[in-house]
Design a protein that fits this description.
alpha+beta, globular, 104 residues, Trna Endonuclease, Chain: A, domain 1
Length: 104
């Protein structure tokens, strides 16, 4: 007998969970960036403890496009924090990284 496959949450559902987590954190502001305004910009942009961050949200196993990778690189080159995340746990790691950098 085969196990039924569990469907992973949609990208929109993951974004919603991450945004809720981020906006529940003290000294954090985050919003979904509508892709129609500028292609390649990560899905979520925000500020945490004075540091800019951008998160490209993907479902587990999915990869960012070449344009998305290029924009992430540009944000990092400008001393912002940018990465691909697939869960709230990944977003927690980003905030912890920012805390380390801000407290250094």
């Amino acid at each position: 007998m085969t196990k039924p496959r569990t469907k992973s949450p949609s990208e929109a559902a993951i974004q919603h969970r991450i945004l809720k987590y981020l906006n529940d954190q003290p000294r954090c502001w985050a919003a979904k960036f509508p892709g129609v305004l500028r292609r390649g910009v990560p899905d979520i942009i925000g500020v945490y403890r004075g540091a800019f961050f951008a998160l490209e949200v993907k479902r587990p196993g999915q990869k960012p496009t070449a344009l998305q990778r290029a924009v992430i690189r540009q944000i990092r080159d400008a001393n912002g924090f940018a990465t691909v995340v697939t869960s709230v746990s990944d977003a927690r790691v980003v905030l912890a990284t920012i805390e380390e950098a801000v407290d250094a």
